[in-house]
From TrEMBL:
Source species, domain of life: Bacteria
Domain PAC: 48-100
InterPro entries in the record: Biofilm_reg_signaling, EAL_dom, GGDEF_dom, PAC, PAS, PAS-assoc_C, PAS_fold
PROSITE patterns: EAL, GGDEF, PAC, PAS
Lineage: Bacteria, Bacillati, Actinomycetota, Actinomycetes, Propionibacteriales
Protein name listed in UniProt: EAL domain-containing protein
Location of the EAL domain: 272-528
SMART domains (UniProt xref): EAL, GGDEF, PAC
An individual GO BP term: regulation of DNA-templated transcription
Amino acid sequence: MYVNQKMADIVGHPIEELYARGVLDLLDVEDATSLSRRLLARRTAGAEEYELHLRHPDGTSRCLQVHGSPLWDSDGEFVGSLGMVSDITEMKRVERALRRQALYDNLTRLPNRTLLQDRLEQAKERHTRGVTDSVVVVFLDVDQFKLVNDSVGHAAGDQLLCQLAGRLRAASLPGETVARFGGDEFVVLAEGLTAAQAHALASRMLAVLDDPFDIEGRPVHVSASVGIASSAVCRPEELLQAADAAMYVAKRRGDGGTQMFDGSLAAEARTRFDLNVELRSALSEEQLELWYQPIVEIATGRLLGMEALARWNHPVRGFVSPDLFVSIAEQGGFVRSLDRWVLRRATADLSDLRAGGHVRPDVYVSVNVSALHLTGGDLWTAVSEAAWLAGLPPSCLGLEVTETAVMADPESASAVLRRLADDGFGVALDDFGTGYSSLAYLRRLPVSRVKIDRSFVVDAAEGELDRTICASVVTLCHDLGIQAIAEGVETQAQHDMLLELGCPSGQGYLWGRPMNKEALLTWLARGA
């Protein structure tokens, strides 16, 4: 046997000791047996690569990569084996870390959506082969978690999620997978359960919320809504969506509810499943269209801008509710593609209207942005590219964001909106007054426009409280140099009231309903 100094350094033993003890004595029992077989078969087996694990004198285990090959003399006779050894311990550690990062949630250390999907596929395959009787998915969504973030801060919200994850993990049984699906959503995957056992599983998970969470020294109580789906009542490939649909039914009934997916929900879940597929095709095949609702100067009726609204006229289903298909795009993971399409189509249409002399150069188009895109990291690029491709100045493109969308990640949202505002793009805070801290967001965000929610406008002409709220918002916006836009203006009485309050601009059926591009051209031709 011959051993060089590099090999001695790797294994941590002097060369003399290696000659005396041999290499096999340093290996794990299983690897020593495997290496013995490989050496005996080297003459016929030829060259090969494999890994070995040995005990280092410092107490650690080292992973070695070995390239073994037969050794022949000048006469072609087999005389032994040649092993080229590399220490790949650190490389293996990095691989494990990267694999864990790809498969586990960084905050809670639970399996993430990717690992959950993989385990769900394995469970479905076992169910198909008859190895297990059923596959069950329990979908848990924390109720009003955004309130927690908004009242005690995002760091505290993260603490709550980590503590909840720990409780859910502790409450799980062997064979069950507890995963963080995203945000404040968790999923438990189990196999071989009856309907009663599935309900018991959901109850076991909800029970972890009975005691308050200790967040920065204060007790915080939360509830959750739970949806349950079993392969006994729906197809395995639809389990996640079915459990999600059941969870939303539970949430609509009130905090802390549980709903089992059954036949009454099957049609709804099937529709969402089909719409997910059909919406992707509609987006790629340009089946969607944009409608526009005018934003006008209240005193004169002069057009100031237009809100772009995505519409989907399904060839079979007819017009699909925007709330429905946007939520499907969000859950399906392609809402950014939808947002990019809206941005490019809206800017292209405005560019055409400008080129044709149909609108003044200062008229803008406003686009709604989803919460996922707002904090996803590429919104600035999508907005900038859309304006550049259409040849529009930034002032002609505005973004509408809701307080709810901003609350998902205020720091990221504020940063990207600040960058867009610095470049000259407009930022509008939509549905103003319906959130929990609207005034705070006026201070935190680079807002150039505020859209007063229609719920205040509708009754403001007759209701003193709503009138007072509208007046306060209009005055506040004026003092801050922000354009106030009253939404939902439908009657002359509302128009007159807003004019009296000094509200500069409005949007609503009084001036025009949402309309496609052709109808908009007709509306513009009337001299708006």
